[in-house]
Design goal:
The protein is α/β, with parallel strands linked by helices. It folds into three domains: about 300 residues, 3-Layer(aba) Sandwich (Rossmann fold); about 210 residues, Dimethylsulfoxide Reductase, domain 2, CATH 3.40.228.10; about 110 residues, Barwin-like endoglucanases (Beta Barrel). Helix content is about 35%, strand content about 15%.
Length: about 775
C-alpha cells in the first residue's frame, strides 16, 4: 500500500499533451486498480470493489447516476473506484497527526495533500487561540455544541449545511433536529449546483426532479447532452448512452469544450471496448459560447414552429392543448427573436442551430440532459425553462424515451432534498412533520448557501455545522467566505477525511469523524443499512461491510442523535422539541424509515420495498400520468427574453471545471489525462485565436483577474496558458483553485446559485513570474 504523499502537487512538473479523443477502456481500468491498491491494498480492493453498486452491497459515494437492473460484477467506473478508494483507504489521521501538524502547518498544505492523509479516527477540538487540534470525547463535543447553541440570541444565528452524500436516514434526522431548534437554516450543496434545475422545473412541470428513467435513456431516439462532461463527472452514463446508440439513438453534445467521453467511448464492461476500438457517441457537436444555451433552445423552438407551419406534424398540438398553457405567448416571443441575435448569443451559425432543430424534428422521443454547465449562470433558470419549452412542444414529457434529465452530482443530493434538507420546504411537508412529531416547526424561510455566507460575513451567525462536504472549497468568493467563517464562534465539521474546512475555522472548531458508505454500521439494534435516492428518483439500500477506521468513529445517524439528545434537552429548547426517541432511532434505523413513511409521500411500505433488489421508484406525476402539479394543473410554456453574458474587449468568459483526477472538491491526483494535462492543475484552457487576440503566449504564466460590477478585483495567481479547442471567447480552469474569482453576489436569478460558468476575466502576466 502506498504511503500518503510528503508534499502536495508540484506545478513545476506540469507538461501538456494533445487532448485524448477516446475515454475509458483499458487505461481507465488500470488507473482505477492502481489507485485502489495504493489506498486499500490488493485484498481489500477485491473485497470492496466486488460490492460497489450491487443489490446487497453499498452505493457508490460518488455521483448519483442510477444503477441498471442487470448489473455486471464490476458495476463501477474509474472515478467511482477512486471515490471508494479514498473512503476505504487504510491511511489514518490520528491524534498524533494533529499533535505533529499545527493549524498553521496544515494551512500551508494543498487540497490534494490534505485529502491524501486518510480517515480521521477521533473527535478533535480546536480551542480558542489554540495552535493544534486535540482529542475530545464525544460527550464533551456534544456539550460544547449545545452550550454554543443555547447561548445564541436566536436559533437563526446557527447554520446547518449538508453535503449530498448524506443518507436519507441521517438527512431526515438532521432536518428534524434543526427544525426542533427553531430554524430553517438548512443550506446544502444543491444550492450551488442544481438549484436552478429544481427552480425551473418546479415552475414549469410542477416538480423539481428529472422525468426520465434509465430505461427511457436506453429507448430514446435523440439525446441532447448540454453543459455536461459525463466522461469525467458521470462515467457510467457513457454506458447508457452507448446502449442507446446501439438501439438507434442519435446524440448531440452541446459544450464549449469537446470532451473525450462523447467523442469515443471504450466500454470496459465489454471485451471489444476493453481491448478493441471504441464507439463514437456524439453525432453532432455544438461548440456553444458560454451562457449561450438559452439562445440555442430559443432558436430550436423557432425552427420547430417554422417546420410545423411549413410541413405540419412537428408540434404535438393535442398534447399542448390538453396539458399546457402559455403556448401563444411563447410562440409569439420566439418568432420575434432575430436569427442574428441568436447567432451572437450562441457563437453558432443559424445553420448550426437549425441542425439541432432538424434532429428534434426527426426524433419521436427526445431527452435533454444537462449539468452545471447550464445551471451556474445569471440566466440559468431561463435556460432550463427554455429546454422545457422545446420538449413540451413535441409532447416529450410523459412519453417513453423522452423527458428532462438533470444529471445530479453527489450520490444522494436528490434524496437529501426529498428528506427535507431545504431552507424553503413547502407547508404540506412541514404539516406532516409536525403531526408526526407533535411539535411546531418554524415556517419562515431560512438561509441558502449564498445567504448563509453573507450572514456569516455580517456577523449574524455564531454556530456553523457542516454534515459532510468541504464547505470552504465548494463555495464561491474564497477570500470572502474564509473571512465569513472565521467570524463564527464555533464551526463543526462532520467528516470522514481532512479538508480545507478543518483549516479555516471559527474561533473554536470541532471535527466529528463519521462512517462512510463502505463502513459497517453496527448500532445497539444490530447491523444497519441506509438508503439513498439517485438522479432518477430510485430509492435503494446501501450496506457497508468494512471495519470502521476506529472504534471512535460514529455514523452520521448516531452523531445527529447524540447532538439531539444533548441539545434538545436544554431548557431553552425542550418545551418545543419534536417528540422523538433519539436513542431508539439511533439503535434501529427501521424506526427512522417508519417516520419517513408518515411524512414523505411515496415511501409507503418503505422497509419491504427497500428489500427489493434495486429498490423502488418514487412517484413523478408528469412522467407517470402526464399530470402536472402546478397551480393550474398544466405544464407552463414560458417566455424567456434572450440574454447572455457580455464579453468586454480584451477579456474571456471563464468556466470553472473539474479535472479527471477529482470529484467535486476531492482531488485524487495531479493530472487530467483526457485533456492532456499532466502533473499540474494551475492551467487555463484558452482558444488559440484568443491566445493571439489577448497577446499572451501558449505556456505563459498569467494571473486570472475577474471583473464584476462591484468593482472588486479578485485574482487567482500563477496559471499556465494552454491553447485548447474551446469555443472562441471562452476559457476554462479547475476549481476549487478558481472559486476565488466567482463573486458571492453574482448569482442566478430565482435560484441564487453562484455563476461559476460565466466569469469575465482578464489574463495578466503573472505578478510572481
Amino acid at each position: 500500500m502506498g504511503r500518503p504523499p510528503e508534499k502536495g502537487i508540484d506545478e513545476s512538473r506540469l507538461h501538456v499533451e494533445a487532448p485524448e479523443r477516446t475515454a475509458a477502456g483499458l487505461p481507465a481500468v488500470v488507473n482505477a486498480l492502481r489507485v485502489s491498491v495504493e489506498q486499500m491494498g490488493a485484498a481489500r480492493t477485491a473485497r470492496t470493489l466486488a460490492r460497489i453498486n450491487q443489490h446487497h452491497g453499498f452505493d457508490c459515494p460518488g455521483c448519483a447516476w442510477p444503477d441498471p437492473e442487470h448489473r455486471s460484477p464490476a458495476e463501477f467506473c474509474e472515478n467511482g473506484a477512486k471515490a471508494v478508494a479514498e473512503e476505504a483507504t487504510t491511511r489514518r489521521v490520528t491524534p498524533s497527526f494533529f499533535a505533529e501538524h499545527s493549524l498553521a502547518d496544515l494551512a500551508e498544505r494543498d487540497d490534494y495533500w490534505l485529502g491524501q492523509q486518510g480517515r480521521i479516527t477521533h473527535p478533535m477540538v480546536l480551542d480558542e487561540g489554540g495552535t493544534h487540534y486535540r482529542p475530545i470525547t464525544w460527550d464533551d463535543a456534544f456539550t460544547l455544541v449545545a452550550d454554543e447553541l443555547e447561548a445564541l440570541g436566536s436559533p437563526d444565528e446557527a447554520v446547518f449545511y449538508t453535503s449530498g452524500r448524506t443518507s436519507n436516514e441521517a438527512a431526515f434526522l438532521y432536518q428534524l433536529l434543526v427544525r426542533g431548534l427553531g430554524t430553517n437554516n438548512l443550506p446544502d450543496c444543491s444550492n450551488m449546483c442544481h438549484e436552478s434545475s429544481g427552480t425551473a422545473l418546479g415552475e414549469t412541470i410542477g416538480i423539481g426532479k428529472g422525468s426520465v428513467t434509465l430505461e427511457d435513456v436506453h429507448a430514446a431516439r435523440l439525446i441532447v447532452v448540454a453543459g455536461q462532461n459525463p466522461g469525467t463527472n458521470h462515467p457510467r452514463m457513457l454506458s447508457a448512452l452507448a446502449r442507446a446508440k446501439r438501439h438507434g439513438a442519435r446524440i448531440v453534445s452541446v459544450n464549449p469544450l469537446p470532451e473525450a467521453g462523447l467523442l469515443e467511448f471504450r466500454d470496459p464492461q465489454r471485451p471489444a471496448g476493453l481491448l478493441g476500438s471504441g464507439e463514437r457517441l456524439s453525432d453532432l457537436h455544438q461548440p456553444i459560447r458560454l451562457g449561450g444555451d438559452l439562445g440555442l433552445f430559443i432558436g430550436v423552438g423557432k425552427h420547430l414552429l417554422e417546420a410545423d407551419e411549413r410541413d405540419g406534424g412537428v408540434i404535438d398540438h393535442a398534447f399542448v392543448t390538453e396539458h399546457c398553457e402559455g403556448f401563444e405567448e411563447y410562440a409569439a416571443h420566439v418568432r420575434a427573436v432575430p436569427w442574428a441575435e441568436i447567432e451572437t448569443a450562441t457563437g453558432l451559425t443559424e445553420a448550426q442551430v437549425r441542425a439541432l432543430g432538424e434532429e428534434m424534428v426527426a426524433s419521436p422521443a427526445t431527452i435533454v440532459c444537462w449539468a452545471m454547465g447550464l445551471t451556474q449562470h445569471e440566466h440559468a433558470t431561463d435556460m432550463i425553462r427554455e429546454i422545457v419549452n422545446v420538449l413540451l412542444l413535441q409532447g416529450n414529457i410523459g412519453r417513453r424515451g423522452a423527458g428532462v434529465c438533470p444529471v445530479r452530482g453527489h450520490s444522494n443530493v436528490q434524496g437529501d432534498r426529498t428528506m427535507g434538507i431545504f431552507e424553503r420546504m413547502p407547508d404540506d411537508f412541514l404539516d406532516r412533520l409536525d403531526a408526526e412529531f407533535a411539535f411546531s416547526s418554524p415556517r419562515h424561510h431560512g438561509y441558502d448557501t449564498v445567504r448563509a455566507i453573507r450572514a456569516m460575513r455580517d456577523g449574524q451567525v455564531g454556530v456553523f455545522v457542516s454534515m459532510g462536504g468541504n464547505f470552504l472549497r465548494a463555495t464561491p468568493d474564497t477570500a470572502v467566505t474564509e473571512a465569513a467563517v472565521r467570524r463564527c464562534r464555533l464551526t463543526v465539521q462532520v467528516s470522514t477525511k481532512l479538508n480545507r474546512s478543518h483549516v479555516v475555522t471559527g474561533r473554536r472548531a470541532l471535527i466529528l469523524p463519521a462512517l462512510g458508505r463502505t463502513d459497517a454500521d453496527v448500532q445497539a439494534g444490530g447491523p444497519q443499512r441506509v438508503s439513498v435516492e439517485d438522479s432518477m428518483s430510485v430509492v435503494h439500500a446501501s450496506t457497508g461491510r468494512l471495519r470502521p477506521p476506529s472504534p471512535h468513529v460514529r455514523s452520521e445517524v448516531a452523531i445527529v442523535a447524540g447532538l439531539a439528545r444533548e441539545v434538545l434537552a436544554r431548557p431553552r429548547f425542550a418545551s418545543r422539541a419534536p417528540r422523538a426517541d433519539w436513542t431508539a432511532l439511533q439503535a434501529d434505523y427501521r424506526l427512522i424509515r417508519r417516520h419517513i413513511e408518515a411524512v414523505v409521500p411515496g415511501f409507503e411500505d418503505y422497509e419491504r420495498r427497500l428489500d427489493r433488489p434495486g429498490g423502488f421508484v418514487l412517484p413523478h406525476p408528469p412522467r407517470d400520468e402526464r399530470r402536472f402539479p402546478t397551480p393550474s394543473g398544466r405544464a407552463r410554456l414560458t417566455v424567456n427574453p434572450l440574454t447572455y453574458p457580455a464579453l468586454p474587449e480584451g477579456r474571456v468568459l471563464l468556466q470553472t471545471i473539474r479535472s479527471h483526477d477529482q470529484y467535486n472538491t476531492t482531488i485524487y491526483g495531479d493530472s487530467d489525462r483526457y485533456r492532456g494535462i499532466h502533473h499540474g492543475r494551475r492551467v487555463v484552457l484558452v482558444n488559440p485565436a484568443d491566445v493571439e487576440r489577448l497577446g499572451v503566449g501558449d505556456g505563459q504564466l498569467v494571473d486570472l483577474v475577474s471583473e464584476w460590477r462591484d468593482g472588486v478585483e479578485r485574482r487567482a495567481p500563477g496559471f499556465r496558458v494552454v491553447a485548447y479547442p474551446t469555443a472562441v471567447g471562452c476559457a476554462a480552469a479547475y476549481y476549487p483553485e478558481t472559486n476565488v474569482l466567482v463573486p458571492l453576489d453574482s448569482v442566478a436569478r430565482g435560484s441564487n446559485t453562484p455563476t461559476s460558468k460565466s466569469v469575465v476575466v482578464r489574463l495578466e502576466p503573472a505578478l510572481s513570474a
